[in-house]
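In the previous lecture we treated proteins in isolation. Real proteins rarely work alone, and many bind small molecules. This record shows how such a complex is specified: first the sequence, then the SMILES for zinc ion.
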Amino acid sequence: MPENKGKNFGKYFTMSFDDGITQDARIMDICRKYNVPCTFNLNTGLFGASWTWVGEVLGKLGLSHQRFTKEEILSGIYKGFDAEVHTLCHPSLGCDCGTDKERVIAEVGQDAKNIEDLTGVAPVGMAYPGGREVDTSPFVIRTIVENTPVRFARLAVSQEKPEEFALPDCFMKWYPSLAVVEMARCKDLARRFIDAVPADRDLLFYVWGHGYDLDSENLWYDFEDLVRMLAEAESVRCVSNAEFYNLFKDRIPSVNF
Ligand SMILES: [Zn+2]
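The predicted 3D structure, ligand included, written as tokens:
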């Protein structure tokens, strides 16, 4: 008899947005409207920073990348949402931190502590700043898991086959399905996800991005449509990253080396 026979499998939709920028407020308005949870990854060493260079790099002069201030976060901007780590100052943990263990611990552990102090909820996860493979070395992952409360971490690299809606193999190398800037693909996959039948395993659809992506590519209408579609699908359970982690932490390891 197949091991999974008789089990009920679910379909889970989760999202996360990086950097703690002012566009997050509009994302949260949309999420509240449809009662959909969302995760936000914050840099507590960069309160109030304005990164005009992001628009320059993207060829979108004038694009806003303005982080919330400490006072705004203390006032409860993210209340009701999942606030997780994105490090203090957004270094590449693989390139900028090298093998500086203390710096990795400070960037991740202190950010987690600050978020707990600001929101009253202790983070259990993060998104790697930059989010490349190089940032997920065994040294980096081991340092984080052994010295901080962080137990899941998302890359900025999409899965090779997002149409399979696979769960992560291990939580510290959590590959999302798609970036929100790939909106046409996101909406196409969302439709396929809603129609999919989880016959022999659980399914996960994970969209990540930055609030500025929605400004930059004029995607707010499509983003709301995406959220509405998934919220209204009775077969889909919408969860924050932390909720998903807590549901699956006994079945999926944080580290697999
Ligand atoms: Zn970032």
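Summary for your notes: The chain has one domain: 11-248. The chain has a mean pLDDT of 96.
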